[in-house]
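Workshop exercise sheet. Pairs work together: one partner reads the sequence aloud, the other fills in the structure field after running the prediction. Swap roles for the next sheet.
Pair: D.N. / O.F.
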Amino acid sequence: MTFKHKLSCRLALLRNVVLLGAVCAAAACDLRQLLGLLAPVASVAVAPATASVPVAQTVQFTATPRDSLGNALVARVVTWASSAAAVATVDINGMVTGVVAGTSTITAASEGKSGAAVVTVGSVRRHGESGDGERGGGADGVAHGDAQKCEWQRT
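Structure field:
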């Protein structure tokens, strides 16, 4: 590398630091916030830690990257993954959709650190249905239960 090239690289770095300081000063942020932009990710917290969702429904997860002191970090890229995509899928925003009954671990990662949560997907049963798929009935042999009113429960 030539001296001229090294100098231009250092000047570009200095310019970026000065611009970052100017933006921070203009936004009236303090030194702690500025350091939060520069601190490495030490851990990723995922909330909620556990969740249940019916098949074909969604639940929102959030990920918070944290520094070594536990402070939340801003402007970090987070990637999401599901350990069992056949059970539950997760999009780039942490929205989890139940696919079939079962359990999946949802993982959020940022800068090589990750955090996880567990989602349980339950099947949807109509009110009055037994676990074997047969309609429940009363002693008179007449099916009881409102087919329009549905509830979900884990199986």
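Discussion prompt: The chain has two domains: 1-38, 40-130+150-155. What would you look at next?
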